[in-house]
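Continuing the series of single-chain predictions for the mutant panel. This is the parent chain; the variants come on the following pages.
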Amino acid sequence: MKRRKTVENSRKFIMIIIGAIIAAYGLEAVLIPNNVIDGGVTGISIMGAELFGIPLGVLLFVLNIPFIWIGYKQVGKTFALMSSAGIAALSISTVLMHDVKTILGPNDPLLIVLSGGMLLGVGIGIVLRNGGALDGSEVLAVLLSRKIPFSVGDIILFINAFIFLGASFIFGLESALYSALTYYIAKNVIDIIQVGLEKSKDVRVVSAKSDEIGDAIQARLGRGVTYTKGRGGFSNEPTDILNCVINRMEENKLVSIIKDIDESAFVVISDVSEVRGGNFKKRDIH
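Parent structure:
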């Protein structure tokens, strides 16, 4: 067990290094030469490097140190170590790649935004998926969300709004708008890397025909189902609540199956960030 854990941690460490290198390449070969920045601490570091002439790698590492400490206190030692490795790899990679050939020029703004956002998103997504982080602003947002009545996403958006506003004074309004678009693309790519293309859905069905619906889902969709006991709030009658996890491509077929059996069934479908364990892999159906 200990050996397996060591191997798994080593694999994650290697993937974090690879993710950091990909993100650094996106910064140095695409974004920075074209005056396009990322959000968070990375964006602040790029602006600082432009204003004060300090190497980007140095600013990335120094400015993230307080957030690594916060992560250690709030999340744990493993997260802090993995994040330290990722941030160190990002810092070193930006220094080593500083003179790398720029792959796109200023006449290709759309390609700059798309390729830069995708490279950043893939790199950061790999790091996050393996238990680390490349930017301390997310750690700060998690901490602040516990103190003020705003979500993590709202806080990150608020922080980045000020960063891109600052970028408009340093690099110009056009570059700031391209930076915001790059951040949006990177964020969506990160979601795909973390969650996967086949995003999972949790389905709950309340119906007098729960057994029949469950049998049909298993026979026609190849998914397993679970039943829990419930009681109607108005009728005060006992009922079975059916639960099933599917991927998003199966949602329409599932709804169709339920309607064929009970059009009045109460159905709740919600997104699932991750599925582990059990037997989620569907069996073959014909």
